Every structure is written in structure tokens, then in C-alpha cells.
Fold these 4 entries.
Entry 1:
Amino acid sequence: MQDDVKRLYLTLFVAMIALFLFNKIFPKPSEEALEAEKQAAEEVIKKEEVLKQDIAKIEDITPVLSVKKALTTDTRLTFANNDIHGSIRLKGARLDSLYLKKYKESLEADSSEIELLTPAKTQLPYYTDMGWVSTDPNIKVPNTNSVWTVKQSALSPESPITLEWDNGQGLKFIRRISLDDAYLFKIQQSVENNTSKEVVLYPYALISKTIEDADLPSSVVHEGMIGVVDNNLKEIKYKDLKKDRERSFKTRDGWAGFSDRYWFTAFILNHEHKHTIKYSQTKENTFQVDYIGEGLKIQPKSCISNDIMLFAGAKEIKLLDNYKKAYNINKFDLAVDFGWYYFLTKPFFYILDELYHFIGNMGWAILLFAALLRLLMFPVANKSFENMSKMKKIQPKLAALQEKYGNDKAALQRATLEMYSKEKINPAAGCLPMLIQIPVFFSLYKVLNISIEIRHAPFIGWIKDLSAPDPLLLSQWTHLPIPSLLDIGVWPIIMGITMFIQQKLSPAPTNKDQARAFMLMPLIFTFMLGHFASGLVIYWTLSNILALIQQKAIMAKNGVE
């Protein structure tokens, strides 16, 4: 009993010492510190409210102008390089017109260039804004109506530009913009304080996009808002923001923007300051990604600056990888939706790309890729086909066992397993190649859906776009009114035939119901894959043909008809 009391006192003593040391090492914040923390929190709320009310507000104007008319309404400064061209509206210094030179809307000869960014007063505006906000209502900062001055006539990789705006209160705002040879803009925002007092300003940037219908079902590729915040990828669907209205994240670095299937816009933060990134819906079918940085103090007769980069262009995987390395942009390649099998999808793309540059045609590159995969899987497939040949050889014996035991399923199962053991057959071995093929199939499916390098890539004959379904449809060469679900092209039919022949060479299930379902599989796959990318169907067809040759050779070796 006394020992228990001693231990209790000792425990209380040690706890008191620990509490004392904790308070010494981690002292309780003073009243001043608590008040400063409270003020800082209120300041954050206040500056975000300013951004929300004054800067992030979308012009509430009924879209009546055509893009051509909108581009001639205000004075503009043009820009161009090998890949893009467009203009910056000097009123508001807004980048709201950008075209992609290398990519067309369709395969038609007179097809127009892809228009990525469009002005605010058009039907589907898509533009960027940036600048400064102040929590002091007496300080004038540039807004969408501020007209900036510029000395240069155009922006190009060889000729950066400098925009200026004076608020008439002693603050001069300067924006230096440079453009590389592809899709990256570098913007340095500076403020000169020519007053006699300290000024605090907060840098911001936003991208606003209006889409036709936010409730459209998602495709196999993520299309919506995207970003990397604190090393975590954020993919936000438009319809999700219809419920939440907005989502906000704190980060020191990262990037955020909008992702389409092949196109992408994002601002890339610098690593020096903390930022608040927000994804929001501003009105019906209009969405916005913005950030606001921490307050920067500008002492009298001094200057501060804030750097930001803007990507606006095509999701060229190699280019994104180069930007990722050159500017240390965390996970920038994930702007491309590689899917669950990232570890396969991305290498597959690089292999296909190398084969394409070696052969000169993406279709033949896909066929060579299928052959190489079959070669790689040759030992596994060989073992599987050996097993399947033995299974087919004992089909008459299995049928005899079924006749012998009738409805006695337990006895039939024991006898069947004994026969498998005697013949050294593993009935599950035939599934292994299919299990390996599943991630390969989905990875290649992703590559053909996400890679802009495959968009509009032709093959032989009638295949002009390997990323699109086979265009030579049943309705075209039969002239029959076939429902769209059943209206498939020639390549899917060829693929279905190869699957049917492959099935005939394989042992049939002993269960009659399973055998009937098994017989329907080629037909189901034919119509299902008939609406997939033709490049994927071509790959699957050749893979089946190579498997048939290998299977037939092994059957001949084992004396199986």
C-alpha cells in the first residue's frame, strides 16, 4: 500500500516538473501576441473580401459581341511566337485572346485554329487577370477599366514588353511581360512608392472561364479545375462547385488553372511568399481560379515586385516535363490525366513517341508497340497456351465425366480435379495473360485519349485520326438505319472476328450457361470497342492476331486440332 502511495506521489511530481518545463519552453502567448494574431486573421479575411468584391467580380454584361467585334473594341497589343498568337487588351492589361497555331478545330482543310482564350463580352469568355489589391479604400489600384501605357508595339520571345499605370497618388504600377518559344508567359509586377508613407499591397491573379454546360457528364479525361497545392494534386469538377460554390487552399508554391482534354491554362506561383488559392463558381456556368498573396510592404521611395508565370497552350507532355525541370514546377506533368496506371501510361507514351519518330506514322508505331508487348509477354503467354492446349485435348474426357456423374456436382468436381492433377494442368493459368493485359489495355486507352500527339494522327486507308472512332460505319456501307450504339466501323468488326477465332481455339467451359455467355463476349467487345479510339482497336486486333499465331503453333506442337 505504501509503495502504491509513493508511486502516486512520484508520478504527480514528474507530471508537475514536465508541466513546468513545457510552460518554460512553450510560453503562453502574451496579450500583445494574441491581439496581433487576431488582427492578422482579420486582415486576411478583409483582403480576401476585397478581392471577392472588387477584383474577382465578372463583368455582368449580356454577351452580345462576336470575338472579332470584341477584339476591335479596345486598343490592343499583339503577341506571337512559333506556337501561339493573340493580344492583350490595354484597358485592364488583360490577356484575353490566344490562338494555337499548330492545332486546328477539325481535319477539314479550311478549319480554323484552336481559340483558347476569348474576351469577356463574348459568348464563352475565357481570360486571365492579375494585379494588386489594397485593404485601404483610399489607395487607387489598377482595375479592369485602367488604361495602361506601353512603348513597344508587340510582344515576342525576342522583345519583352513593359506596361505602366500611375494612380496619381504617388504609386506607379509596372508590369514586365516576356514570352518564350512555346506557351509560357513570365510576368513581373512591380510597384514604385513615391509617397512619404509605407504602403501595403497584395498581389493576385485569376483565370475566369465560362462553359456551355457544367452539368455535362465527365469524360474519361478530367476536364475542369486543376492544380497542385502543397504537393497534392487537386482535380475539381465543375458540377462539384455547384454544390460547394468555392474551395480554398493555403500554399507557398504550386500551380492552379483549368484543364481541358488537350488544352490547359494555369498560373504558376513563386516559392517566396504564402498564397491563398481559391476555386469558385462566380455565376451560372462561369468558374474562376484565383490566388491572393500575402501583403508586401513598400517603404517610401522604394520598389517591390512579385513574379508569376502563366501557361496557356497545349498539353504537350515532353514540353510540360521540360518546364517541370527547368522551373522546378511541382508535378506539372499531372496537368495530363495519366490515370491510375501513371507508372505505365507515361512510359507507354514515351515508347510510342520514340517509335513514331523512328517510323514516321503513329498507326504503324502502335502496331510495332503491340508486337513488342507480345514479345515481352511471350514466355507467360506460352505457358498459358500450353495449358490451354492440354485443356482442349482433354475436353472429350471431361464430357465423359459429366455424363458419368450427372447431377452429382461434388463427385464431378473431385473427378475433374483428379484429372487436372494427372494431366498436370492448371485451369487458372489461362487467366494470367488476361490479368496482365488489363492494366496494359487501360494504360494504352488513356494514352490514346490524353496525348495531343495522337490527336488527328492518320493511319493507312480511311483512318485519318487515331484518337477518334473508326469513321467507316456500318450505316455508310450498308445504307441501313442502324442505331448509333450499334453503328460501328470496319476495324472493330475485324477485331471481333479475331476474338471469335481465338475463342474457338480455346477450351470451352464445361457449364452450358457459361459457354453461352462466353460465346457472346466477342460480340459485346465488338460493339463496346467500336466507339473507342481507332488506334486502340487496331492495337487490340494485331495483339489478337499475334496471339492466334502463337496459340495455333503450340496446339500443333501438342497435337491438338
Entry 2:
Amino acid sequence: MVVQSKSSGVPRRQISDDEVPEELKRLGQARDALAQELQGLLRTMPRDVPAELAAMIDVHLQLLQDEALQDAVTVWITQHHYNAEWALTTQMDLFARQFDAMSDAYLRERKGDLHQVVDRLLHHLGGLPLTSMARPGSNDDAPRILVAHDLSPADMLRYREGAFAGFVTDVGAATSHTAIVARSMGIPAVVAARGASELVPPDAWIILDGDAGLVLIDPPAQVRAQYQARQLELARHAEGLKYLAVVPASTRDGQAVQLLANIESPQDVAAAMHAGAAGVGLFRTEFLFMGRGSDLPGEEEQYAAYRAVVEGMKGLPVTIRTIDVGADKPLDGIRPGVNPALGLRAIRWSLSDLPMFRTQLRALLRAAVHGPVGVLFPMMGNLDEARQACAQVDLARDELAAQGMLAGTVRLGAMVEVPAAALLVEDFLQQFDFLSIGTNDLIQYTLAIDRSDETVAHLYDPLHPAVLRLIAMVLTAGEQCGKEVSLCGEMAGDASLTRLLLGMGLRHFSMQPTSIPRVKQQILQSDAAGLKAWADQVVRSPTPRSVWNSGSPKLHN
């Protein structure tokens, strides 16, 4: 199935003075319809989809409501007498050139989001439904592969209901949020396949190899048979890993490893337990706050959500991160700043709104009465922030005591997401009970690479020597202090990196529940002590990937 941008066939005409009010009305109706559509998607979002989708849809809502876009399009209609579709695409072209000239990668990435918003507005202006999910040809049992110029978060949700088998996009990056969401949903994807939406015929047979980044169009029968056999083999392998849910994660030389789950809502607890998670390593609380406008969740609502997770994990440890907003996770009504990735975000935003912060902390302390809870502060960059955050926990505890309410004991931790935190690791370990390395942001900030920017995404490298040495520094310091250091993000769930991380000393992995079986299989077949010398060699090398590619000590069967 091929889906092309609606903007490619935009009607263009000059309108008369008498037609201006009608065009403005059409534009307003399209904007209202799209806003209702996106808000409806947020309200009815299935609980089994990654929460990053909510963040991406929230970004689209903010762009839709942006006054600069609305005012500029209105000028094209009222002063230049363009019809609404032409006005939209003309202004989009101007914005695109401005975005391309920006030095900040995060802001350049917003061009793709704006394109998606404009395309959906054009759909509403044309009164056209979204492209149907009818399968090509007469064989209704054939799996569907979506080929599109781009795929918005709303598209992902809508097409997910049609159970497509994979997708291909002209633009994007392998480390973009859309690609990450697809992997977490177990959907093969190839992004940045330039021109695919124009080159692939609507009724073509496609082989999509997400691992290799290949799209084969109308391959010969022999190649199709080979890939079908491989597909069956992979399905059998995944089925064979299900038994691992009840097997403790331990290396062959007796090193116990904790495999924890990343979750976004209480409904995700079932998936974590089904995968055999040893606890929750990261509960992203910001998704309780998104898509609600100014109606942020109060203490009782937050307490109920946190308590549901704690009780649902049946005594297993739960680490709950305080709200991490900014950059790719904005909230309605909060200005993103000149550079959202480097601005008022994460713990900085919490410390700028202490009543909101203590409301969350009180809810967390109350939930800790029902089971073991760790409170994790995001994007900690200096010791002053650390002391302020910990002091707010004490104040929240005092407020609960003054009301005669119970507060549980919590462990306090910080996320290592910026190089400054890694370099201050020994000081942070004196201040906190545990640390969690957030590899997605740590790599991004260390290398000054926006992983969602397709022009530089190839430089985003978890095996960069600077990244590995920062991770090794934090792991070593934690071992010497006798304190827990976990690792979350894409690296933790990448089974190809499991043996390296084991050799570096990592014993607490936190990942999407779907990744746990593959990572556990690697752990069960590995000798952690035997991996140490090889891992040290990889970390010390100026070209770690070459050493890593040469192969680690062999797995034990």
C-alpha cells in the first residue's frame, strides 16, 4: 500500500474579495477538525502502544495552534487572495527554508512535524478521509506494508488498527522517534528510503528487511521463498523464548542480572510481568501530564496511578521518574524556548515550579507505602540541583506529616544523561542511593548529534569511544561505592550489545518489555568474567567498533 503526501496535488487558484471569508472559515474548520482528531487520539490511545506516540501527537497539537502559522496563512488568504490550500503550502515552503537554515538540530527536526500537520490539514480541507487500509490485489489475506513519504504519530496509531506488517518512509532516521516506536511495537521499518513512495507501485510485492534496511520490490520467487523461510524461523525463535519469562537472569558464571521494564502507564504493568521483568526500572510519569491542556493531574490522581503500578508489580521494585518535559516531550502552554533540548526541561522545569513538583513528590511518597519505590530525577547536571531536589523530597514528607498522612521510604536516584553528570559521578553517588544511565540523551549530548535529524543521524553512535568511556566511568564508580547503577534507553534493549555491557560491569538493564527475552537469552549464555578483558579492550580502543566487530568470546550453548 502506497500513501503519498496530499500536498503533492494541492489546488491553486486566486480568490475574489467575496471569497476571502469563506476560505478563512474553511481553514478554521479544518484546524478545529484536526485538533479534535488529535485530542481524540490522545484520549483513546491504546495502553499497549509506546508512550512516545503521545508526546509526538502533543507536539503536533502545539504546532497546529501556533499563532505564527495561523497568522501567516491568514495573510496569504486576505492580502494575496490565495485559496486556503495554496496559502498553507506556500507558507510551509517558506517555513521549510527557514528551518533548513537553522543551526539547531532540534528546531530543524520540527520541519518534518510541521509538514505532517500541514498534510493533515490539507486532508481536512479537501474533505477527504485518510487513505483506506484496503490490501492490494484480490488476496485479502496478504500482509500489508505501508509505503509513505512520512508517517506521523497519528498515522501510526490509525494504521496500527489495520495491523500493517511494516512500513517504509522516504524520510526519517533509524534513531528517530517514529523508528523507535515501530521497534517497540515489533513492527519492521525502513526509514530514509528516499523516493520509495514514488518508486513503489501500489500493487507491488515487497520484502521489507528492517534489520538490514532493505526494501526489495517484486523480488523473484526464489528470493521470496528464502525470506518466507527466514520469517518462519524468526517466529519460531520468538515463540521459543517465551519460557524465559520464568527463568532467573543469571550468567553462566553465576552473576545475577536484573532485567527491568520501562513503562509509561499502570496498564503497562501486565506486559512487564508477562515478560518476566524483575521490576520497573523506569516509569515515565510525564505521560500522565500530556494532552490535557492546563488541567494537570493533581495529587490524588497521581497517587492512584503510582499506587496501581506499585501494587501491580507485587512487591518487585519500582523506579518512578519525576516529570521529564521539554525538548521532544512538551506540555500544553509551556513555551519550548529558543533551544528546547538545552533549555528549561526535566529537573530544571520541576525546580522552577515547586508547588507542582511537591505535588508529585507527595503522591510518590504516599505510593511508597504500598511497596518498594525509587524516585529518579531526570537530566541532573550539577550538585546544586541535586541538593535542591532532595530538599524538596524532605519538604513534601513534612507536608504529608502535617496532614497526618503516611509517607513511605523511598530511594533517591539521578539520571546520568549529560556528560557533566558522568564526570561528577563520584559526587553524585555520595548524594544519591542509585544512578540510571539514560543512553539516548547521553549519546545525543556527548556527540552533539540529534538522533532524529536524518542529515546527521548516521553519526549517532552508541559505540563511540567517548560514550563508552563515560558509561564505563559511571559503572566503575558505582561498583567501587557499592551502589546500584542501571542503564536504560535503546542500548539496554539491544541484544547485540548485551555481552559488551555485561563485560563492562552492568548488572541492571532497563528496557521495553518486548526486548527482555532476547537480552535474557544472551545473558544466560554468557560468562561475565570471561567478557571483561574483551570489553575493556573495546572501551580503551580509539576505534571500538572494529574491536567489537571482531567478535567477543564465544557464547556457551
Entry 3:
Amino acid sequence: MAAGTLARPAGTAPADAPAPGRRPWRTLLALLGGSALGFAFPGAALPWLAVLGPAALALAVRGQRFRSGLWHGLVFGLAFFVPLLSWTGIYVGPFPWLALAVWEALHLALLGGATALTSRLRLWPVWTAALWVADEALRGRFVLDGFPWGRLGFSQTEGPLLSLAAYGGVPLVSFAVALSGALLAAAALALVRAWHATGEGRRPAVRTATVSVLAVLAVPLIGALAWLPLPGRSLTDGGPASTVAVIQGDVPRAGLDFNAQRRAVLDNHVERTVELARDVAAGRVRQPDLVIWPENSSDIDPYLNVDAARQIDRAAETIGAPVLVGAIVNGPGRFISNTAIVWDPSTGPGDTYVKRHPVPLAEYVPARSFFRFFSAEVDRVHDQRAGKEVGVLDVGGARIGDLICFEVVYDGLVDDVVDGGAGMLVVQTNNATFGYTDESAQQLALSRLRAVEHGRSVVIAATSGISAIVAPDGSVVRSSRLFTPDAFVEEIAQRSSTTLATRLGGGPEWALTALGLGALAGALAPAARRRLRRSGAA
């Protein structure tokens, strides 16, 4: 029997759990685990380290009370989120960054407490992994629609576990990472018991340790085998192809004032498109069927500003293809709209998509007077109005699913465009406000998971980088450097096939969440029954 599978009476610590009094060692273990998990994400980008995070947290809270689990989960969460989200404070100071990191870490505190309670149950590694999914589901939905950055699954840009995204989306990848970590913790405990076992107990202890080690290896093996039935994953596999051009015009400066020279940003994208047209005329690159500009490529409303419209017309006419322009449009009322506009070289502006999920405190400010107390920077934010329509657009014969900036992190928004018939995904983004940080690389990692999850190529157009083209297997075919003008052209198939993850939608996440919550209820049940008996006796 694998380590940790024996049922224990509630309120008693397992024999293989660390002694309850060694709290400093548990805290240190949680601290190291959170740090190790951070190194799995860009910029260190060591995906295999991700399993050490859940393993360390599982060991730190094993056999502990709920309150102890809360503490160790909080330490773990702070060690993970404070460095991971450091880019949020690069130009606005430490308060917004640390406030967000603490808020995100509080969710992992709840996870630590719940994991401590379920650590006494049989098959505890499974319940631990399911609770990770439940915690990420909570973190990605509640209070201002949540912020699911830093999910375990988003760390897996390489390696065997990435394939699982095609079967159960990011939640299944997160579950696999957490399960690998929890099994690793169980194996470590079993090996310690086998080392100390003597006499008649040695043989079963060694057998248990062997089974535990094999269980750890089984998860990545399943992931590796899961790649085999997946269809062709190159850019041109799967359907009729369109030639796509990506323009990164760059900005005059990084930081909050990146667009103080709004006309310069627009001119950069116009001129880079005109240069690309010269390359096309000279036969150096293929004629594109469509051109993708990034978010904020025109912060001048081209519906109101005749000169801005004229410049976009010039770019579209010169390249001879429709341009997907990322524009800030005035209205409705006092609001502005973050809008993607299909700009035809003959007929001008056509279909649009308005960003459905503006970022709270960055693109709109709820309870502005309250947040002004903490930072006057909130008054620099002009409230955006959220769009209502799903971002599926026909551009130059290609049916694209448009996502603007952080929308790519939300499962439901990505599911919507694929369900709407998108043959490829487009992420228009502006990362100039984050400077030379890891934010752009982290966002690229999200897009790589989305490519595998839905079997679609992903085109990322960033104002200042990183722009990229990602194949359906998650590999990066082309990419740009930060704050460097660039343009590239690739032939990309419009795919209509669907992965199992696309067909199941949110099903895997809800099922795994229910599994974790069911285990938590099972862990709480004995204590609840004892309280009922005591109240009845009284």
C-alpha cells in the first residue's frame, strides 16, 4: 500500500508526519517550496521545478491543524507571488504589487488549511491535487472576477504534462503538477520509513516505498503517452492556410507614459507596415492575407480623428490587406472602449470587438474614492466599458478569435472564441507599462498552454514585445525582443477540429473541484459528528 494511504482517526497525526513541534522547519519548507514554484515560471523557466512546490506544501502541512495549515500556506503563497508579480509594481510603486501578492497568497493560505485537514485521509495525494484545482478556480473567479495568474498549469510550457491541456485544459495540467508533487511527498515519507524500518516491518516498508516512487513516475509517463494520439501540430496542419503578418511598432518610452506620444505610437505601426509592404514588393516575404496590430497601436480614436484614420488607411492600402487595429475609442458616454477594428484597404473600418474583461484598477476603477486613499495613481485610469460580444472576427478570409491582453488568462473567454468558430487565436496586447520584466514572457507562456488546449495556432501582437507565433503544439515558431520594432509573416492553417478539452469546457475543473471539496467535507465530518454528540449529551 502506498505511503499515506492508511486511514487515521481525525485529530491524530500520521506516524510518518514530521513532529508537530518543529514549526520553524515546516515554515522554512513552505518558504522554499513557494520559491521553487516561482522558478518554474518565466524568467527562470524551469518547468520541472513546479512539482517541488506542491510537494513542499504537502509535507509542511501534513498532519497539522487547520490554523497551522493556514500559516504555512500563507508563507508558501507569499514566497511564490511576491516575486512572480513584481512586474505589477515596476512603475506604480510597491503598494499595488504587494497588495495583489498578499491577496493572491491568502488563497494559498486557504489551500494550506484545507490540505492539512485532508492529509489524514486515505489517498491524500489525490485530494491534495484536487484541492489545488479548487483553489485556482476560486482565485480565478471571485472578487472583481478574480485573477488566475500563476496557476500551476501555466508553468508547463515544456515537458510531458503540457499534452494534458488538450484533454482537460489548464485545470488538468494543474492537477497533474499537484498530483506529481503530492506523490513525491508521499514517496519521500515512504522512503524515510523504509530507511528506519527494521525486522519484519522492513519488507513491507520497502515495498510501499517502491510503489510510491513508481506512482511519482506514472504521471509524467501518462503525459508523454498523451502526445501520441494528438493530430499534426505544425502551423500549416489542419485546414486552409492564411498568410498572417504581425507588426510590433514599439513605443517611444516604457512605463505609464508609454503612450504620452500617442501619434508616435500610431506612426511606428504605420511605418513598420509600410516597410513590410516594401519587403513584399521586393519578393523578400509573402503577401499577407491579414495584418495584426497590437492593443493600443492607435490610442487616437480613428472614428473621430481624421488624420489617424488617414494614416491607418495608408498602411492598409500599402500592404494591400485588412489590418486588425487595436484602438482606444471614445464612448459610450464618459467611458472609453478598448476596441479591435478590422480595417479594410478599400472600405476602411468594419467589424469590431470590444474587450470584454477590462482589468480592475488598471482599465477601470471600482470604488474610486476608496482606492484613491491608497494611491493617487488610480486617477490616471480612464474607465473602460466592457464589451458584450464574443471576439470572433473575419479578417482577410481568416476567422480569428481575438483576445485582448489579460483576457488570455481566463478560461471562459478563450473557450468562447473557439466555440464561436475561430480557426486561430489572436492576442493583442500592450506590455509597455511593465518595462523589461518577466510579464511579457509569462503572458507568452499562457498562450502556449492555450495553443495545446484548443489545438489552435496563437498569434501574439504586442506593442513593445514579446510578439510571437505559437504552433498548436505550444512551440514558439517566431518571436520578437522587448522594445525592438519587428514584423514577421507566417502561413497559418485555419483549424476546425476540436480537442477533448474544448468539447468538455469547464467540466474537468468542476469535477476536480467537487472531488477536492468532497474530500474536505469527509475530513470535517468526524469532528462535526463529535460536536453533535456533545451537544446532544448536553
Entry 4:
Amino acid sequence: MEHFDRDPSNGRKLIREMLEAGREAFLDNALAVLRAQPEAPGGHYLVTLLVANELLLPALCHPSVSREQAVALARGALRVDSMADMTLAKALISGDQEAVADPKRLMDILDEISDGTRILPTLLRLLRHDDPHIRSKAVLMIGRGSRGVRWVERRLADENPRVRANAIESMWGLDSPDARGLLQKALQDPHNRVAGNAVLGLYLLGDCSIIPELLKMSESGAPLRRSTATWVMGETGDPRFLNAIQERLRDADPMVRRRAYWALSRIKAAAAKLAQAAEWHMAARFRPPERGSKARYVRLAVASADGKEVPSILPTQFLLSEDGRPVHSYQVAEREVPAAFSVAFVFPKSVGRAEPPWVEGALRALQWKRNSDLWGIAPYRPDTGGEPAQAAAEEPVFSAGPDAIRTSFQHSGRGVPCPDLWTALWSAVKGQERLVRGENRIIIFSDAVEERSAGLELISAIITSSTLVQATSTEDNPRLEEFCRKTRGLFRRVDGEEEASRAMEQACLQLLARYEISYPPAVPEAQNLKIRAQTPSGWAEMTLAIPPPAEPSG
């Protein structure tokens, strides 16, 4: 074996002579070599001989071979003989105890290497096997292979809880109304393992309503249910369950405590792995609640740093906390982002600065602009009292190309008189009226207090055109804030240039908001909401100031 790659022909001859000299001794020594050097030269040939000489079954059940090594050997056998899984399945049916020394192990290996589709007739026969472990594994493989919800549902009538639990496990990852209904039904199963598999199945589908149920289960009076709940928490790798798991570390039952230590290590491992994943950008804002609703509503967008990916995030992959207190009850709705936007940026004329922070933030957000979106800029002169600006307002020129947008933003308002804010807004509205692409949005930045209010005609035009206005100001700006309130827009107060730049970046990203989270307040008087999104491929988080409750009208 050590020199097999130097002289394969002679190596094969010598190995065959050893096999002919004694099968038992050959098997022992072949397994010793494969255990010590899994990737040794000639290893593939050794496996080929095991398969061809009916030594695969005794090799897989050999006491010197660990379960992991047996699975690796079986996968190697599949590469040599594509029908190796059929050989294992038929051996289980035969009931030959001499050929199959460890049927349970063989069934576990079969579950690892086969999707069950090709050996389905054999698996159906195994449903009548005397061993409940083999019957339950057959149920799992059939359910995974066929994805037949009705067939799995009939298995829930089986008196063996292992069969019922594996039937539910086979539904993991299948997202359909029938599958979700079956998982919901299994939550009521009296056996802890069946209910636990149903909880994990719903969590994996993104059903965030299961989170309070899982926490409730972890506090059950029955140790088995607490242990199962702790196992589910560990399987999720979700850090929101850390406090509950730490409670179980002090559990009176030693089995629950052992499970809690295991779950804690799983979540720590998941956190370490996530730390290596990509960091995304997130933009979020509160929206006014529905009339009579006490819930809070947040709309948010998540995008990769380079703008090439808009991640898909399950509801269970959002984590919320108010002033440090976790929010466990929440709902997530995903909405379709319009195919295109026409965005007018109404920015103050900058003097002596090629790229003021608000322009810098907007241009940084170009990485998220889609080819279908049009951007244009309407410069204005802040109104700080005295006579209003008399300059005529030119309608903004909208462009799709990043280079043209960058040039227009950097040279906006240079060498020409600019109108006041409200006149510039009128020009933006009229410019958007001439476009036929997508939905209209207006992003305003102000670094001075406006002394005049917007006219009713402008407010009416904004509302009639269904244009969403997002305004950011570095000053307390009552008239601009009032304009946003009357047009059902958004107003945000920021401090400093760095925050202004970031706010413009977020306002642009907010255009791509596809998630809306609603939840009852965990802390009614909370000041801040922390939102975190995390998937195996990336994560993002931000903190939002919670707006004060709206004062009742009238």
C-alpha cells in the first residue's frame, strides 16, 4: 500500500494474493490500513476488493470500525458500485444474522448514504421489521424521499414514538401548507421527541410563532420535555435562547443539565462560525401603527456590502430586543419591492465643497441602485428668513448610469442661483410626473431651519402622486417635520456630518425594504430597538430610536 502509486500493477497482484491466502486476515488488515490512512494510495483498490468479494457487509459491521469510518467506507463503496445501497438494503431484509452482525448500524449507514428514492420498495418492506429502530429509520427515509405528507400523516398513528418522531423529521425543510399543518398537529403529540421534532421543523421553516412555544416547553414540569426543548435550542444555534439554556444549566434533573451544556456548546460554535460570515448593511424605520393598534411596526432592508446580493431572510432569523429585553413574540411579512423607482434628491446647495456629507452618503449608496432605477438631484437654497429665493427651478435630470449620477451630484447648483426648498420640491414633483418608470420617491436633506411652510398645493401633489418623502435634518426643523407628517412621509433628526452621511446612505437602502416586522412592545417605555438579522451566509444589525406614541387627533 505504501508504494502502491509507484507500481500499481504489482501492488494489485500482491494484495490479491493476500486475499486468496485468507479472507479473515485480509479483512482485518485491510480495515487497519483504511483506518490508519483513509487516503492512502491504493485505498480505492482495497475498497473495490471488499465490494467485489462480498466483504463490504462484515467490514461495515466490524467492531474495530467506528460509525464515522463505516459511513466513509460505505460512501467509498458507492463510488465503486453505484448499487451498493441496494446491497445493504437487501441484506437487512434477508435477516441473515451471520452476514449482518449489526442491523441497526447498517440501517444508520444506509440513512447516511442513500436518499431512499431508489430503494423505496425495500424500505417499505422494512416497515414490517421486528426492530423498532429499523422501522423508524425506514419511515424517516421514505418520508424524506417521497415527501408525501399524507403518507407521513398515517405514520403518526403508529404506537411507537420513534416511528412518529422520524416521520415528522422527514418533513423538515418541506414548505407547503399541508406540511406546516402536519407539523402543527404533531405539536400536540404526548411524546416529547415527536413534539420536539415538530417544533424544530417549524423553526427551520421560519415560523417565528414557535419561539414562545419553545421557551414555554423549556420550562415544562416534565424533565423529558425540558430536555427536548433544550436540544431543539441547541440545534437551532440561535443566541436568543442563551438565557433559557443557562437556566437549564441549574436544572434539578442531571439529564437536562447535560443537554444544556451540549446546547450551549452548539450555540457558541454557531456564533464563532457566524463571526466569519459576511457583514451586511441594514436600513430600518418605524412606520405609524394601524389605527387602534398597540403594536409597533418596522420596515427594513438588508443588502450585501457590495450591493450584489439582497439576502433572503427567514422570520426566525431576525432577533429583536427593546432596551436589552428580548422580543420573542413578533411577526414578519415579506413584500415585493417595486421593479423600479424614480428618486429625486432635494439637497441644499453646497458652497466650496465638492462632496458634502449628504452627497457623499447618497453616492456611497449607488452600489445598491438597480439598473431600472432613475436618480436625479434638485438643489435648493435654504430659507433662513428674509426674502424667499426668486430663482426659477429647473426640473432635475434623471439618469440610470452611476457615472452620470455621480457627475450631476458633484456639480449640482454650481454657478447658478437656486430656488428655496419648496420650489425645488415642486420641480422634483413635476420632473417625476414626466417619467413613466416605477414609483416616485423624494429624499430631502436639510442643514438649516426652514422659516416658511409648504403650500397646500404642494402637499396635495405629493399625496396624489403616492410619493413617499424621506427627510433628514441636522436641526430641529418644525416646518419640514410638519410637511412630512401631512404627506405621510418620514422625518429624521441627526447630529453631525458623519451621522448625516450615514442617514442618506440608509435612506437609499430603505428603498429596497422588503420586510415588515410587527410586535407588541416588550418594554412599553423603551427608548431603543435593536434588530439583528443572521443567516449562515451573513449578518447585519442596527439600533433604532423608538418614536414616542402619536398624540390622539382632535
